[in-house]
Amino acid sequence: xxxxxEDFPPGRFGSYGPRHVTREEMLAFAAEFDPQPMHLxxxxxxxxxxxxxxxxxxxxxxxxxxxxxxxxIGRTASLGSPGVNELKWLAPLRPxxxxxxxxxxxxxxxxxxxxxxxxxxxxxxxRNAAGEALCEMTSPIIVKRREAAAG
Amino acid sequence: xxxxxEDFPPGRFGSYGPRHVTREEMLAFAAEFDPQPMHLxxxxxxxxxxxxxxxxxxxxxxxxxxxxxxxxIGRTASLGSPGVNELKWLAPLRPxxxxxxxxxxxxxxxxxxxxxxxxxxxxxxxRNAAGEALCEMTSPIIVKRREAAAG
Lengths: 151, 151
Hints:
The structure is a homodimer. By secondary structure, chain A is an alpha+beta fold. The first copy, chain A, has a domain at 5-21 and 67-150: Roll (Thiol Ester Dehydrase, Chain A), CATH 3.10.129.10. The first copy, chain A, has 5 helices and 7 strands. In chain A, strands 1, 2, 4, 5, 6 and 7 form a 6-stranded antiparallel sheet that branches. In chain A, strand 6 (117-127) and strand 7 (133-144) form a beta hairpin. The two termini of chain A are 15 Å apart. In chain A, 38% of the residues are buried. The A-B interface holds A 29, 32-36, 38, 48-50, 56-58, 61-63, 65-66, 69, 73-74, 78-89, 142 and B 29, 32-36, 38, 48-50, 56-58, 61-63, 65-66, 69, 73-74, 78-89, 142. Strand 3 of chain A pairs antiparallel with strand 4 of chain B, so a sheet runs across the interface.
């Protein structure tokens, strides 16, 4: 069943994963989009502030997007997102990490400009297997209200 | 020459691109990280709010990262970024777009906790060939001060 605005009351929404991240996919993403030495070069990375090879923050965001898609966005009447309110990279993504994602609905309100939709603001936290938070993101999506989705 | 904190006074920093984006790379990124119908399926996309196939916002961010890397981050004594202050997706990325990036330094200050570094906050705006803003991002990076970089 398709999830609509009414299915996102404020509070804990769900937990997803684990999603295993390989060294190979980390290096492939970095080579294409973010070829800084800390993301590509083991020796340079060991001398960096993050003390070892770390994934690009944009790779982490992209993996979080896929975990959200697999978890609920793929079956949500979502019209898209206007952006991100806040994004924090808190600790490095490492080769071999098993990521989990906790999602809360922090706000849900009917759109004033488009009353057949609502704006659902999520807070997602990605953690590694040790429970350390790697990334925290607060972002709204636009979701159809049930009546509009059915019509 | 490596760019240090002192090389980033507030004001216009630079303009980069054009970077051509193909339909094939848009579909490949969406298939891996953001397989929503609006990013993958031409027919579904034409019925979506964005009225046609659009790239994932995370793909746009990743391309912006690469444009920043090629433009200046690749030769900057950067230690990484703690996150993003604000990110707005303003208009859809389309197949065949030629993107340009304008970058301003909005703030530059010496770090209190780590005085050998400074925090440089950039605002980047990605535009298509028509000059329409697709994405706007404000984000800090941590950059070595010249004395520390030389040491």
